[in-house]
Structure formats: structure tokens, C-alpha cells
């Protein structure tokens, strides 16, 4: 492959990752996660919501070898966006790498802790994990709302499961879900 073809492919891949990332962010901002699901509307709560959205999307991509690189690009975009966000809100240049390590560790811990429940679509087990981790560690989280957040996330996982690999590779995910907030 020539250098120009590779540059075009890389630019197209970045465009697709950007399209997917915008849709991930829109889904993670679903008010149901905050109002009903007990996530605090804070930097930490938004990080947790994005983490959960990334977990279900990465799980969807894991079943398809041709989505592996795209999945990693999305995780990289997640971490890059988090880094930029911290710098924009004024966290010092020297403190950002330390916080990034902490947030990355938290993300991968969430992946490990939630995986068994997501794999079996076990709402009770996922609620227990979310109450113990996500909703307890995020200041202002409401562990009592874990069953509603677990239900929401498993519904989102089912929505992703119905997406074709072609849609994902074309940068098309889901319309943000209709919220169930009363």
C-alpha cells in the first residue's frame, strides 16, 4: 500500500472513530443514567457513564475480529478525550498523568468487575457490582439506584448486539435511547 493510500485510510479511520465517539458520548449523557440510575452529574459520574458505555461497545466489538482495531482506537480516543478534558478544566500539567493513570486503572477495573455480569446478562449481579463500585466510588452516587442503572446498561448492551459490523465500521451506532425519566 502506498503512502497516500495509507494516509487516506488513516484519515478515514479517524473520521469513523470521531463519529462513533460522538455517538458514545451522546449515549453516555442519557439523563436516565443520572436521574434514575444514581450516577452523580459530576466529572466522576460522567467518567463512569462513559466507562459503562465503552464497556458495552467494546464487548460488542470483541466478537468480531475485524472490529478489534476499531475497538482499541475507541478506547484510545476515550483516554485522549479524558486527558484533554482534565487539561481544559485546569488540572495542572504535572497532575494530569497521575490522574490519567488512576482513571485508566478505574476503567480497566470496571471492565474486569462488570464482565461476568454483562456476559450472562445478569441484571442482579450487575446491580451488585455497580452498587459496590461505580455508585459508591463516585462521590454523590446513589447505590440504591443500581438496579435501574443495571437494567439500563443491559438494555444498551442488547441494542449494541443488534448492530451489524458493517454499521459499526461505517461509523453508525445507535440513536440515543428514549429516556425513561418521568
Description:
With 182 residues, the chain is an all-alpha fold. 73% of the residues lie in helices and 0% in strands. It has nine helices and no strands. Helix 3 runs antiparallel to helix 4 (68-88) and helix 6 packs across helix 8 (146-161). It is globular, with a radius of gyration of 17 Å. The mean pLDDT is 88.
Which descriptors apply to this entry?
mainly alpha; 182 residues; globular; 9 helices; 0% strand; single chain
> Main sheet?
none
| Secondary-structure element series | HHHHHHHHH
| Ends apart, CA distance between termini | 54 Å
Helix coverage percent: over 70%
Which structural class best describes the helix and strand composition?
mainly alpha
Task: Walk me through the topology.
Blueprint: H1 3-28, H2 31-35, H3 43-62, H4 68-88, H5 95-120, H6 123-132, H7 134-137, H8 146-161, H9 165-169
Helix pairs in contact: 1-3, 1-4, 3-4, 3-5, 3-8, 4-5, 5-6, 6-8
Describe this structure in a few short sentences.
With 182 residues, this protein is mainly α.
